[in-house]
Amino acid sequence: MSASHLHQLIAALPLQRGAGEPLFRQLYAAIKAAILDGRMSPGMQLPPTRDFCRLLAVSRQTVLNAYALLTAEGYLDGAVGRGTFVSRDVPLPVSASAPATASGLLRPLSARGQGVVAAMRQVAFHRGPLRAFRVGMPRIDHFPFDVWNRLEARRWRRPDHHFGYSDPAGYLPLRELLCVYLKASRGVQCTPQQIVITSGSQQALFLLSTILLAPGDSAWMESPGYRGASGPLRAAGARVFPVPVDAQGLDVAYGVAHCPQAKLAYVTPSHQMPLGVSMSLPRRLALLAWAAHNKAWLVEDDYDSEYRYTGAPLASLQSLDRAGCVVYVGTLSKVLFPGLRLGYMVAPPALADALVQAKAVMDRHTAIVPQMALADFIAEGHFGRHIRRTRDSNAERRDLLVRGLARELDDQLACGPADSGLELCAYFRAGHDEETVSRAALARGIELRPLGHYADPAAGPECATPSGLLLGFAAIPPDEMAHGLQELGRILRGR
């Protein structure tokens, strides 16, 4: 490169005077970029610092500082009396002539990567402000954030050895308290050593799918069912086998007849997602017998069992397990608030250590301060009071929705089970297209979740999902709920 071309290149280096970043850092970055993209080639001699100052109208100290940083990182070589050169050890830039993939990636994702990405494409995520009838959302304004802030602040003021790397299984005092709570509220039989704290139940489902299944293994999945669970199964390379759900829960006999070789079954026995039914005792016993006989794993997702409005919470499937085949998965997103991202697994004793090691591979351990604050929150009685308060609030809003549906839409919708959870399903009495209704509602500021969203596209006619909607109520204020019901009525009646 001629001296004149080099001077033009230097004069064109982008510097923003008055910016927050010092000029020497900007100059360092500009020269580094010119070297890496080949505009300044290995072995090229740079002008003396005084010439550099004149071309860019900067101080000599600015140039000297930039040169020093580039030399320290190996981009420049130089010595007094010899000059400054682009290092010959900097490799030539990679040619950009290779054709790009259709997605713009340097090369296609691996088959495993494509499976992981594709697995969650059908999962609906919350977007925009809260509105009727968003599903899966607890009532956050009831949470005692002032208490939580105080508990966290107390922990930050007294850091201890736990602020280093922690046990991948989770904060032991929290696991001990959860052990007591789960025994009392859900009949779960466990020790603290069987509990693994996770970053939400979604991480638990991914860990279980990854370490319990080999690519090609079959897994039963409720249909309709929670798409956030079928995603991890597919990401692990499993063959997801849809099993129908009726008024008694998962149809175990159907699964045994059509896919007896499955290595795992995912179930929501206490409150089926999305139909809201509870698995009957005969079905629970049949499922446990099949799993024990076939050495299959059962993943029990108990995502909102705290919110049962008629009688005490149902006993867990895990409490009936005598073969060590049930992994109990719980979340605190529905009880406290979703942004906390805390969940847990209760594993059979023989599986617990493997899950701890797998957890350590994924993220070493879940953030420790929220675990410590939660342990204090439980120990001081705030957890129990919060559950009682939110259960009463949810029951009131459930009653408002049920009465509103009967008053405004009884000729259009029939309510499904409404004795637990944060939402209820409503079936169309007349022929309506779910997607058409949902799009029309969204245009009017209402968020509806079609029941068809939870259906497995590969499921046969035996798994046909009834036509209807899943309506959330826990987080929806009464005025917003009333408005949503009125607008939904207009839509369904074609107004």
Report what the structure shows.
- The protein has helices spanning 3-11, 23-36, 49-56, 60-72, 111-119, 145-157, 172-186, 201-212, 227-235, 252-258, 281-294, 349-363, 368-379, 382-409, 434-443, 478-492; strands at 45-46, 76-79, 83-86, 195-198, 218-223, 239-246, 249-250, 264-267, 297-301, 326-331, 343-346, 413-415, 423-428, 449-450, 468-472.
- With 495 residues, it is α/β, with parallel strands linked by helices.
- Strand 5 (218-223), helix 9 and strand 6 form a beta-alpha-beta unit.
- The protein is elongated.
- The mean pLDDT is 90.
Please give a quick description of this structure.
The protein is built from 16 helices and 15 strands. The chain is of the alpha/beta class and 495 residues long. The model has no long low-confidence stretch (mean pLDDT 90).
Radius of gyration: 30 Å
Q: Class of the largest domain, according to the CATH hierarchy? A: Alpha Beta
Number of strands: 15
Strand content: 5-15%
- Which class of secondary structure composition applies to the elements? alpha/beta
The main β sheet shows up as: 8 strands, mixed
Percent range of helical residues: 40-55%
For the largest sheet, list the strands in their spatial order: 4-11-10-9-8-5-6-7
- Kindly report the CATH topology of the largest domain: Aspartate Aminotransferase, domain 2
Instruction: Output mean pLDDT.
Output: 90
- Taken together, the total number of domains comes to 3
The CATH fourth-level homologous superfamily of the largest domain: Type I PLP-dependent aspartate aminotransferase-like (Major domain)
Indicate the overall shape: elongated
